[in-house]
Amino acid sequence: MKSGSLSVYAGNLVVGDGSVLKDKYLGVSDGVIVEVSDRPLTGYGDEYDYSGKYVMPGLIDAHVHLRYDPHGDPEKRSHEYQAIRGVENAKKSLEIGITSLGEAGGIGNVVFAVRNAINNGVVLGPRLYVSGEMITITGGRTKVPGERKEVNGADSARKVARELLMYHNADFIKLGATGAISSAHTGPRHPQLSVDEMRACVEEAHNCGKMVHGHCYGEKGIGNSLEAGVDVIVHGQSLKDGHIRHMVENKLILMPTLKAFCGHRDNLDKGGVHTRMVDTGIWPETEQNFRRALEAGLTISMGTDGGMPDDHFSNNYLDLKYMVEWGMTPGQAVTAGTLNAAKSLAIENTVGTLEVGKYADLLVLGKNPVEEISSIWTSLEKVILNGVHL
């Protein structure tokens, strides 16, 4: 990935932790912020004056499926084809201000290849953090034997987690704690992986300093995930008060993927996964679940589920729009899309806020996103990745 050295004057610095600082200068060397000052800086190469503008961290969409085509079925395409499409989907996200992505649904070596190509500068794209295929029970996501990372028992689960972490250097692990609305032969509320199976994966991931995300809708799957030590609950309908208290007390994270569910709501006439969300009762719980979690102070992260049917990569930011519509302040939504999303991938030491020691992934806006969340997409003027203007 290409890196740059420059200095930036920010009339308004949106840090990413809820604060906005006036008249700050950033010194960037080899893509990293090395100085934040109240005074002009020299010696960093090109100087950029963004007085009157709002400079914020690049957004982090911590849950996408790059290989998918929101218009069709990725299973009908070769792995090579899916990798090429993944590069294009990643690029679309970068162009609208998503400077980091969490890829949560690979197959084979597809998304690892996309990540490595981006990181090695072969293609242009956002920072990419990859789980590889979700670990699931036999038949938990497909009826095609051997197609997915299927496990049976704790030892089997531990082996697969080790393969992802050791052979592929997976950046996090994703577990199928319940069925899914996108897998029509499964019950989305029905528990799948056992506590022992998930705990084995959690132990291996935590041994490597990596996070574990649990895909779950139903109450039992959420409880199993929390008992196993999962760090991030993805989707999370049917959260009970006890679940929320446990998550708040242990500083765990909810990734509600609102963009996916609101997108399903807006496309009910197309049937399929859209109407299945309603038929299974998942949709009626979604808003009230989010509002309860927000009121309780649970850490909430951006994650769009991009790539699912009608969930496109050119408007990832809508996840934040729905968060505000359902009770967040714009400032809270900015934090959800920056610092909290970074925490969900254990990368908050390098991205997520504009501070010394972090990568210079910046968005330059004409308006204040802490006052109006839509400023992120209606007034975006520049995207800077690793200290390089795109």
- What is the structural class? alpha/beta
Text of the CATH class of the largest domain: Alpha Beta
Poorly predicted residue ranges:
none
Strand content: 15-25%
What letter string, H or E per element, gives the SSE order?
EEEEEHEHEEEHEHEHEHEHHHEHHHEHEE
Q: How helical, in percent, are the residues?
A: 25-40%
Architecture of the largest domain, according to CATH?
Alpha-Beta Barrel
What about the largest sheet?
7 strands, mixed
The overall pLDDT average reads 94
User: What integer value in Å does the Rg equal?
Assistant: 20 Å
Would you give an account of this structure?
- It is built from 13 helices and 17 strands.
- With 390 residues, the chain is α/β, with parallel strands linked by helices.
- It folds into 2 domains: 6-58 and 353-389, Urease, subunit C, domain 1, CATH 2.30.40; 59-316, TIM Barrel (Alpha-Beta Barrel).
- The strands form 4 sheets. The chain has a 7-stranded mixed sheet. A 5-stranded parallel sheet has the order 10-11-12-13-14. A 3-stranded parallel sheet has the order 5-6-7.
- Helix 10 (318-325) packs across helix 11.
